[in-house]
Amino acid sequence: MSRLPIRARLTVVFAVTMAIVLAAVGGLLYVRLGASLEEQLDERLEARAEQLAGSSGTPRALEGGEEEFAQVVGAHGAVLAATPGLEDVPLLSEDERARARDGRLAVEKEVASGDDEAEKARLLAFPGENGRLILVGGSLEDRDEALVGLLGQLLVLGPVALALAAGAGYVLAGAALRPVGAMRRRADEISADTSARRLPVPEARDEIFRLGETLNEMLDRLDEGLRRERRFVADAGHELRTPLALLRTELELARRRPRSQAELERALDSTAEEVDRLSRLAENMLVLASAEEGRLPIDETEFPVRELLESVARRFEARATAAGRALELSAPTRITLKGDRLRLEQALGNLVDNALRHGSGQVRLDAAARNGLVELRVSDEGVGFPPEFISRAFERFSRADAARGRGGAGLGLAIVDAVARAHGGSAKAANETGGGAAVTVVLPG
Hints:
Layout: H1 6-55, E1 68-73, E2 79-82, H2 94-101, E3 105-111, E4 119-127, E5 133-139, H3 141-189, H4 207-256, H5 261-292, E6 301-304, H6 305-322, E7 327-330, E8 336-339, H7 341-358, E9 363-370, E10 373-379, H8 387-390, H9 401-404, H10 412-422, E11 426-431, E12 437-444
Helix pairs in contact: 1-3, 4-5, 5-10, 6-7, 7-10
């Protein structure tokens, strides 16, 4: 059953359900018709019994119809009067006569009148005067014939109705599943080259409509991810092109003519700088790729937040001094954080590097604990972020060149965001009220 197509399964289930319903309805009709015919016969027999009771069992009153008969039985079981053919035929046993004297008795049994064959009949016995019993009966042949006729019609019409219902169920299942077939065909046509196409959804807002909407939303996410990956590859290729071209140029110039020791050292220094840039770019791209796949490794330890900020500040102290810039640090000693210290140093180092590279004035490293969260904040006193850049500050290869200068691959803030999310936190960029840019990393305490 589980290997059948859905349409076939729905048809089978519909057919089985209809068979049960038809059998139940047919059985109910059969029982109700039998009960109705029996009730009508009882009403006629009760009327006949009342007639016999009023006539005191005269022979004229005992004359029965073709399918009805009567008897008047004395207190000792003798037949006092009877319809022709039943004068010497006892209709009730001694036990049945005793029960009938206590009240109305209804029984069904085979009754033979004279030389006629016995046939099934229904008997009603009522207590009369002076211990007598009044018995009236009627043939059940008409009832049985009616029930047999109904049963025959049900056996003929039932399978026909079941076949029609199964056919209708098959057609309805096909109509209900037609949108699924259309979605399947469209899904078979969608590829990386046609990722913008979407599945058709039916007009009726039913379960299939909601399924189509959900699948289309999934395709939107996949398409966005595909565009993001394409953009990532294109940007990465663009970023790699420049240092590789510079490396090629330096090497070609070094080989073109004899160089002095000083010239060769400058060429090697320039080459080493580009190699270092390529290494950082490759490392950053690997970090972002791991973060995208949800497997950025995190080695959690608990440490004081102030020690983290002091370690980052020491790394950039010489550079800040050479640039005539000040590094200020503010963090309560009681605040601790559970996370990957090296990853967090990398993230904060990117922020300080950006502040020294693109900002101006003092660079501040702050830490605060609020509502069970730890906020790590790096700010400067430069011109700040362009307003249109803030919403995309953490996108890969995103730069604010117009206001923040040039240089770098635009991956620093993206790595900050990836490290924050790997710790279950977030990162946000903003401009200071008095000027300057600020980036805050919010982490669980």
